[in-house]
Amino acid sequence: MTTMRIPLDAPNIGELEKEYVLRTLESGYVSSVGLLVTEFEKRFGTWVDVPHAVATVNGTAAIHLALRLFGIGPGDEVIVPALTFIATANPVVYVGATPVVVDVDPVTWNIDPDEVERAVTGRTRAVIPVHLYGNPADMSRLMNIARRYGLYVIEDAAEALGATYDGRHVGTFGDIGIFSFNGNKVITTGGGGMLVTNDPDLAARARLLTNQGRAFGAKDYEHPEIGYNYRLTNIQAALGLAQMERLEQLLDAKRRNAALYREVLRDVPGLEWQQELPEGKGRSSWWMFSALVDADFSGRDRNTVAQRLRAAGIQTRPLFLPLSQQPAYAGYGLAECPVAESLHRQGLNLPSASFLTEEDVRYVCQMLLEGETL
Q1: Closest Cα to residue 268, out of 251, 238, 301, 291?
Q2: Same domain (yes/no): 223, 321
Q3: Are the C-beta atoms of residues 30 and 154 closer than 8 Å to each other?
Q4: E strands, the chain, where?
Q5: Which among 239, 372, 317 is positioned nearest to 7, based on CA atoms?
């Protein structure tokens, strides 16, 4: 097995994180009882400028909670983009609703508002736009469509902490936004997620549902409704708090490396990449820098390029397999999504870890371009 000199992505953990976690271990409050989860929620909410943030065990759980909060279930339809990680759609099935998959924009790779509007039926209850790889979706158009048809909007910002649309953090436009803190995200708690909302009632019920349907601090073991064990732990929150202190630094590194990729690879025939919305409307966090490889790129396809990079110790990954092609959804009669399917065939995630150096990025580019001097 070739040792990966340059990983695709990995946690950026330093001494501060170790200090926070060690302090938590020494306190004895390692599970969900303790103050750090609440502190993490408050600090996160303040950072994205939203009044209510509820920590969860992961981002998938946050989407599941959002659907439960809106009473979405059997007979309902929820519109999701074809090009996303499967976790965007799975919670729709958890609640018994039907995922309706629509194609994406060929430039931003995000859900196409025109396709969303065409997919609305009398059974449609919600839409889940995804800010893919940290790149903001066109929230103005999506929110207008949602208002026109009376739809809930659940923003999947799992990959997009730090991204902005019209100067405002993504995840704060819809009725609910969700974030992920998996090991490869902009910040990590090892696992974990966050549900954010402007609605205090939604937040209060989300807290109830994360705690097996029981209010935190309730004296008796009384559960007003069926809930889930979706709580974050204090150890995870400690890691998250330390990462929040370094968040601006981590985002700067992501954006700096993406800018270097764009500078070095510009005007190379057969190479393109995901684009932000025009006129400065959307600012990506560049969680993952991804390129499209077509036949004009030295006559090589995506897989050949990936094999070459792997041989040079560089880890890559294809774009997500579109939901329209997922075996798990074969029985749902999903329509073909030609844009998403074409992007998947050509797309390659390039190393995007926040600890990469300029030398690392230039090495990736050099290997990508078959050893040209850059």
Answers
A1: 291
A2: no
A3: no
A4: 52-56, 77-81, 98-102, 124-127, 152-156, 164-165, 168-169, 176-180, 193-197, 271-273, 282-283, 289-293, 317-318, 347-350
A5: 317
Cβ 310 vs Cβ 316: under 8 Å: yes
pLDDT of residue 187: 98
Query: In terms of Cα–Cα distance, which of 237, 226, 169, 170 is closest to 30?
Result: 237
- Name the residue among 288, 335, 286, 273 with its Cα closest to residue 80: 335
Give how many domains the chain has, as a whole number: 2
For residues 273 and 289, is the Cβ–Cβ distance under 8 A? yes
Chain centroid to CA 356: 20
159 and 35 belong to one structural domain: yes
d(CA 273, CA 319): 12
193 shares its domain with 270: no
Same domain assignment for residues 241 and 252: no
- Taking a C-beta distance cutoff of 8 angstroms, is the pair 156, 130 a contact? yes
- 71 — alpha (psi -120 to 50), left (phi > 0) or beta? left
pLDDT in tens, 15-38: 999 999 999 999 998 988 889 999
* 91-147 tens-digit pLDDT: 999 999 999 999 999 999 999 999 999 999 999 999 999 999 999 999 999 999 999
The full DSSP string for 5-40 is: SB-S------HHHHHHHHHHHHHT--SSSSSHHHHH
- The residue assigned the tokens 């774009």 is 319
Instruction: Give the DSSP H/E element, type plus range, for residue 66.
Output: helix 59-69
What are the E-state strand segments in 44-175? Answer: 52-56, 77-81, 98-102, 124-127, 152-156, 164-165, 168-169
- Extract the tokens encoding 242: 């330390």
Point out the domain boundary residue: 230, 245, 260.
245
How does strand 77-81 pair with strand 98-102? Answer: parallel
Domain that holds residue 332: 247-368
21 and 124 belong to one structural domain:
yes
Beta-strand relationship, 98-102 and 282-283: unpaired
Phi, psi values for residue 228, rounded to 5°: -140, 160
Q: Is residue 77 part of a domain?
A: yes
The owner of tokens 């790779």 is 109
Residues 6+ away with beta carbon under 8 Å from 289: 133, 257, 258, 261, 273, 349, 350, 352
